[in-house]
Amino acid sequence: MSTAVGNAPVQFAPTSSQLDVAYSVCRHIARSAAKNFYYGFAVLPRPKRNSLSAVYAFMRRCDDIADDNTLSLYDRRNKLAAWLDSVHRALAGYPTDEALLLALADTQRRYQIPVGLLDHLAYGTAADVEQEPPSPEQAAILAPRYRTFDELKQYCYGVASVVGLVCIRIFGYRDPAAEALAEKCGLAFQLTNIIRDVKEDVGMGRLYFPEEDLAEFGIAPADFVAPESARLAPLLAKEADRAREGYRAGEELIPLVNEDSQPALWVLITIYRRLLEKIASRQYDVFTERVALSVREKLTILGKGYVKRLL
To answer: Which are the contacts of 207, defined by CB distance < 8 A and separation ≥ 6?
Structure first.
């Protein structure tokens, strides 16, 4: 997807003022687009908050390219490859004046984030552009993207579990057990997103629930076109139970990250877990309206996170 980049002849060193501006741009992107994640960022010490904002902004750019329906599949792939090339050059120390790349390169060096993990984040977004966007006629004929749950987990690894692995680099940890727990926690976040966003995803011709799970409950892909929430609720409940396993892994992860980052991780897990339980309390009716936590609910969780930081 991207050509290799050797070491820069002279390592580029941005000034403190350049980095301040770069991180400010990334914080603005995160604050505007990360409706749930930014609440977790807010509880972190400023350097870590800046770095998570830079990683989020990078992911956001990848997602925007992958989801740009004004471009053909071929053009989106080329644009994503060109973007990743520019990322690699910045990470290798070549000069850049793009704020996002300045911040990302500083973050990668500061926390020794493996470049391969950042590549995985980009490749994960590419998984959603493997097929041309469906025509209106094709969108009504759905097919599961994955045959088994293990296949779905592979997709979730690329778009979510890898995010967890990057985040714990910034949070800080010593026990290698944290890595497997972060992967499971990321899976829980993504399963929650899949449950919440099923209506929107089906509208784009995307059906993430695996074929084996549909068969277990006697559900056909066509049942999602004119959905009856009561009919689909057992399937969504099964995926919710899998997500709950991931949130329990998240609880085990919290004490393994550095103390100054534990409240932020608690906030993130609590927000997503509450969102899942709110969906469950509505008998998994995610079709009548989009289910979300209110700003007040999220601020309450954030307030408790600040208290944990002070203790």
So the answer is: 142, 143, 144, 145, 201, 221, 224
d(CA 311, CA 307): 6
Tokens of 212: 């084996």
User: Degrees (nearest 5) of the Cα angle 84, 111, 57?
Assistant: 45
HSE, side-chain direction, 13 A CA sphere, residue 249: 21
Region of residue 109 (left: phi > 0; alpha: psi -120 to 50; beta: else): alpha
DSSP 161: I
Closest to 250 in 3D by CA, of 183, 305, 163: 183
The number of residues in the chain equals 311
Quick: pLDDT tens for 115-160. 999 999 888 877 766 555 455 555 456 789 999 999 999 999 999 9
Would you call 199 helix, strand, or coil by DSSP? helix
Tell me the whole-structure pTM to 2 decimals. 0.89
Residue the block writes with tokens 């997503």: 272
